[in-house]
UniProtKB/TrEMBL annotation, chain A:
<protein>
    <recommendedName>
        <fullName>DNA replication complex GINS protein SLD5</fullName>
    </recommendedName>
</protein>
<feature type="compositionally biased region" description="Low complexity">
    <location>
        <begin position="138"/>
        <end position="165"/>
    </location>
</feature>
<dbReference type="GO" id="GO:0000811">
    <property type="term" value="C:GINS complex"/>
</dbReference>
<comment type="similarity">
    <text>Belongs to the GINS4/SLD5 family.</text>
</comment>
<dbReference type="InterPro" id="IPR021151">
    <property type="entry name" value="GINS_A"/>
</dbReference>
<feature type="domain" description="GINS subunit">
    <location>
        <begin position="62"/>
        <end position="144"/>
    </location>
</feature>
<dbReference type="InterPro" id="IPR038749">
    <property type="entry name" value="Sld5_GINS_A"/>
</dbReference>
<keyword id="KW-0235">DNA replication</keyword>
<dbReference type="Pfam" id="PF16922">
    <property type="entry name" value="SLD5_C"/>
</dbReference>
From TrEMBL, chain B:
<dbReference type="Pfam" id="PF25005">
    <property type="entry name" value="PSF2_N"/>
</dbReference>
<feature type="region of interest" description="Disordered">
    <location>
        <begin position="92"/>
        <end position="115"/>
    </location>
</feature>
<dbReference type="GO" id="GO:0000727">
    <property type="term" value="P:double-strand break repair via break-induced replication"/>
</dbReference>
<feature type="domain" description="GINS subunit">
    <location>
        <begin position="146"/>
        <end position="235"/>
    </location>
</feature>
<comment type="similarity">
    <text>Belongs to the GINS2/PSF2 family.</text>
</comment>
<keyword id="KW-0539">Nucleus</keyword>
<dbReference type="GO" id="GO:0007059">
    <property type="term" value="P:chromosome segregation"/>
</dbReference>
<dbReference type="InterPro" id="IPR036224">
    <property type="entry name" value="GINS_bundle-like_dom_sf"/>
</dbReference>
<dbReference type="GO" id="GO:0000811">
    <property type="term" value="C:GINS complex"/>
</dbReference>
Amino acid sequence: MDIDDILASVDHGPGASRESAAIDHQLLTRFWAAERAVSEVLPWPAPLMERMMDRVRIQIETIEDLAASSADMDPSTKHTTHNPNLNLRLSILQTDLARTQYLLRSLLRQRLSKLSKHSMHYLVKLASRSKNPLISDSQSQSQSQSQSQPNSQLTPGDSVPDISSISEISPLSSQEATFVHAHQTMLAGHFGGSFMGAFPPQLRRLDDNAGGTSMVQGPEMKEVVFVRCLVVEVPVVVPGDEGEEDHGVLMRMGDVWVVQWEGVREAWMKGLVELL
Amino acid sequence: MAFPLPRGITPSEIAFLAEMETITIVPRQRLEGMELLSGSIEPLGPPRRASLPLWLALLLKRQRRAHIIPPSWLHPEPLSLILEVESQHQDYKNAFSPPPPLPGQASVTDHETESIARPQYTPDGERYYAAPPFLPHNISGAGTGEKEVPALPFHWIEVGNMLLDAASDDLVDPDQLRRLLKDLREVRMAKMRSGVDALDAAATGGGGVALTGVGAMELGEERGFLTGVVDNLRKIGASKEQARREQLADQRANGGYGATQEDEEEDYMEF
């Protein structure tokens, strides 16, 4: 990479540099494999996804331009010299585009499927964070959310947290947050209409945790995943109950391990391990 | 259903990933360089060798626009050597042969140098450590002059089979390659199965089972079985795990932190 490349990347914005196109593609591929491997929704990589969507849009325009130029090609013009390779170039560009679109589509659908499965969990998680900004994204806190309001609500829909005023919506994207709220509201309406309406009012909450058992199911964090260690060494951690951590086995560079997801979650967030 | 596939990438998705491996070709025609979403493609001009993603190399090969130079490991000699190590060598009775090193990783035979991870930087300024399929593990080594120990790359089954399917005329002795690949697969599959006893370690918090050297497709085949076994073991051992955590918490409360490190379960199995 020489100075011209650096200048070019500055001139044309983040989507234009060649180097970053290749790395972004690798990042997207790795993120997709990770999203497919774990049961929770991973933090939405907003800058990466914006760059990818920009590139896809630009690439579609390029392909359309090329296709148009091949369509109105006049045999008498001097452009005919390019013609033999034009169809090949088009098919390569289209294959590349289709492969990227497949990655994006698979990624988004996988996230949607996880979100609709655990919609209440993510809503409660978002809502609990806004009530107490000191709580980071620790899983255990949202589960034990206290029920301060009196049980006077009449429909299950009232227990769906309102997240419209929340600005910090990690791990979701804004569209996903809207979706998950709409999805859960409809689900609550359906539950209320079909059977929960017949319950006594105090039993109508969807986030009921009477008797110490939360009715909100979250993703299983202890499921095992396959990881490759990318740096010199990474310990598998045992998350403690009060934020304390113990260290388990040590993974070395290039090793592939079967470990519990919560043991390598932090290392994955830092990009020190890769999910396979 | 928003998404019907099970958790963990499926064999066809693994093959999709394997098609991103870089491979060496000799083009038979000129082609201008291109900016693809997956990175830029160098201009092709025969008879100069070029490195392309496997999917593109296969596309060109099917249209008879290029010859594929087989990866340095996909020859009868290195494969026979690896097969011998896998089946005869004492050190690898229960382990896979070592994979090709990551950038900056010290090789297995070389105990002098330390591994130092070499990061690249993402456009967001974060560290990024490249890994297969984005490492040059499948290019032809003839030009680099490196004398490396032969090793099976992560996507060896997929790359091997795809090349045998689409480009067997470019390979050296394809029938023998087929035989060797099949033998390797069987030897390694037996190791994978025999290691199931060690899986209990992965069911406890902080424990794990090493599978270093495993191939992507081998993982894909065993993923459902392994995760099922470990998750069931974890459920069975949940009360034991709870007791262990309480014991650890007690010890920590008594200030005996150093002792807990010693007790930590490390009975994993190199395999």
